[in-house]
Amino acid sequence: MTDMSQSTMLGGAARKIGPVVLDLNNISLAFGGVKALTDISFDVRQHEIRAIIGPNGAGKSSMLNVINGVYRPQKGEIVLRGEHRTNMDCYSAAKAGIARTFQNIALFKGMSVLDNIMTGRNLKMKSNFLLQALYWGPARREEIEHREKVEEIIDFLEIQAIRKTPVGRLPYGLQKRVELGRALAAEPDILLLDEPMAGMNVEEKQDMCRFILDVNDQFGTTIVLIEHDMGVVMDISDRVVVLDYGKKIADGTPDEVRANQEVIRAYLGAEH
Ligand SMILES: Nc1ncnc2c1ncn2[C@@H]1O[C@H](COP(=O)(O)OP(=O)(O)OP(=O)(O)O)[C@@H](O)[C@H]1O
């Protein structure tokens, strides 16, 4: 683990980037004959915004799924805050403060915004099912505390006006914002965002960018994101790792990655 730290300027404010919190070493993952990831290594520092980019099928979502334990790599190890693991499982990833959003929105469409965000508090709930059902004593106090936290998130994301609306009735951009809210309800240290701006119009993208920067800045959350919009990636990321056909082809600052010949070739090839 390195203790190297650095200051960067983003959004006008100086941000302190801390030591490595997540280290991925030589990760390989295959589905039958399909090699989704081959010998991938990169690290994520505390408080940074780290992007994973690459053409379709490059292995980006698979990488996030390895980090939060949905997929188990055949080779390699994950070092989380200095603790070595060959595998991560979803429960321990969540317990260790890793939350994520998905490429395709995964919310309960018939439930209100508030109730959807509340589901993100599940791991934080201590009282047992019986007490919760009776809404008695500690369960009642606990629910009030969780509600307060959820209301804070609703204020932060500026969605007070739709707090009682069933999620399925909301436009796509707002549903994505609610999904971010649910992930934030877990009070994560590391937030994994899988294409948070996919399918959004320009205004919605600007809003989402602002919220991601604010989460990073105000809560100190480390962010790992996959995003196809290059303008957004280059604007908000501290460092970018580039995958192509399951292999890492570049890793560096947005400027370094932009000038990398192999990256240019991969993207031009993908366009053709
Ligand atoms: N569950 C799975 N079963 C079989 N193959 C899979 C599975 N998940 C991913 N793959 C394959 O692994 C490779 C990488 O897929 P992945 O979804 O990680 O790429 P991606 O970079 O996220 O792509 P996109 O930008 O299109 O979302 C692809 O060839 C894909 O078909």
TrEMBL record:
Keywords: ATP-binding, Cell membrane, Membrane, Nucleotide-binding, Transport. The keyword Transport applies. The keyword ATP-binding applies. PROSITE patterns: ABC_TRANSPORTER_2 (PS50893). It holds the Pfam family ABC_tran. CDD domains: ABC_Mj1267_LivG_branched (cd03219). SUPFAM superfamilies: P-loop containing nucleoside triphosphate hydrolases. One of its GO terms (cellular component) is plasma membrane. GO terms for molecular function: ATP binding; ATP hydrolysis activity. Residues 22-270 form the ABC transporter domain. This is ABC transporter ATP-binding protein.
